[in-house]
Fold this protein.
Amino acid sequence: MSAPFNTSIVINENGLKFNVDIENGQKTGYFLDQQDNRRAIQHIVKGADVLGAFTYTGTFEIHAAHYGAKSVFGIDISENAVAQANKNATLNGLDKICKFEAMNAFDVLKVWAKEEKKYDVVMLDPPAFTKSRETIQKAITGYKEINLRGMKLIKNGGFLVTSSCTNLVQPELFLHTIQLAAKDARKKIKQVVFNAQAADHPIIMGLENTNYLKFLIVQVSDI
């Protein structure tokens, strides 16, 4: 029988440190499959006002601050995740740039769009909206809605960073859903980056559910 050990650890990723609770956190406490994609935002966040939704423990947002964002505000529905995110910002000396609060993204993004709040970059990294084929349409509706609301908060020429980890929503369907969201938001979008998961989570040809992560950066312009 193995001896008990401390399940709260600190890891290093892309020159940053993150507290990870491997016992009580989601998945293994940290989403390693996005590590390459977190580096992909560095060229769009310099000097930017950034909003992050579904932040979990703040990894994308803290990367944005590290890469030169002017301000970063992150929201997540989980009080525990937000507390961990603020702790991670402090751990990296970025707590003056990066703040997190517990809020329901679906609710507040709608309100902020009506208030005409604007950001240079909006980042969305929601959890899987379905694990069953029976509710796939509900998941697509959710992705379309949250991305539509996100686009409405972006300044003309700014950027949307959006992900989906739902393996039942294949890449073509995800891209189509984002296009529909742009149409309804009356926005024109230009693809900047489209990636899958990090290479240590391999895609096995012929097993479509291994091609599960979609990571997209688009430039958003007014029509």
Q: What stands out?
A: The chain has one domain: 30-222.
